[in-house]
Amino acid sequence: MKPVSGAGFGTKVAFRRRGGIVALAVVAATGVLAEAPARVSAQPVATGTNAIANVSASGSANANPTVKRRVSRALQRQVPELDLNHVVVRFRSLSSGLVNRLALDGARITRAVTGTRWTELATPNRSARRVRSSLLHDPAVAQVAYSYIRHALTLPNDPLFWSHQSGYLSPLRIDRAWDKSKGSGITVAVVDTGTDLGHPDLAGQLVAGRNVLHPGAVPQDDNGHGTMVSGVVAARTSNGRGVVGIAPSAKVMPIKVLDSNGAGSDTDIALGIDWARTHGAKVINLSLGGTFDDPLLSDAVQNAVAANVLVVA
To answer: pTM of whole model > 0.90?
Structure first.
């Protein structure tokens, strides 16, 4: 089992005092515990039409296939990715007549998104656009929105993470934070791809979590990203392996909302946030993102914050 790989960029740390205890949370795009193959997203380049103009003017796109790929990915990041098999709705009222109208549109209610005001509808045959358009003017519908797809952010591939840790920990003065607290008594929910539940550097660091994608199954990581984040948050110290967690006395609550490709819908992410909120998490970490704001996801985050949970994203 590989102990660690990682790179020191993109880390953000948030601190909140709770009765004298410093809660440490990490939005970690740095550091890996996982043995899954690591990937690195392209460094930011010019986006939109300017990107094409800049590359064309330099002539480098034709000469360098890597530049072409980076420009293509940069352009793709500007386009929201829709879950075409679902929409989310806020109902003014729910009646048998509305259920019949939904059926005529080929839609059906699948689940309430707990912790929010929204309900998920299934839209078979990738008909989300048509169903949303049909419901926009339905008097029983207060609001209808797409469910967007989010992705895990930045899987670095540097195999020398241990030797590089000081590069991002020292500017954050983590050693001085450790003089105050190492996160004892704090549970950090890592809402991500799950966590490698058998990883030796996380032994004793995990509490019961949730697999939102497959309720009843354990939140085992099949991608690697969630394990990476869990390690940055709370990997064991002084055990002769791997990395040092930023809050090594904290506990990690693994919540799987992203699949083996690191992708997941806002509906599943919102359900994961709400599960963490109602099961004792003091901090919720979201190392994931997309290109479009979503009122469903905002509801879930706002409810967590209102419950005095620190959300770091």
So the answer is: no
Q: For position 16, what pLDDT does the model report?
A: 40
For residue 109, the one-letter residue type is: I
Contacts of 123 (CB under 8 A, 6+ apart): 84, 85, 86, 87, 106, 107, 130, 131
pLDDT at 4 over 60: no
pLDDT in tens, 227-275: 999 998 998 876 666 777 889 899 999 999 999 999 999 999 999 999 9
Give CA–CA dist 78/73, Å, rounded. Answer: 9
β-strands 283-285, 263-265 pairing: unpaired
Distance of alpha carbon 189 from its chain centroid, rounded? Answer: 11
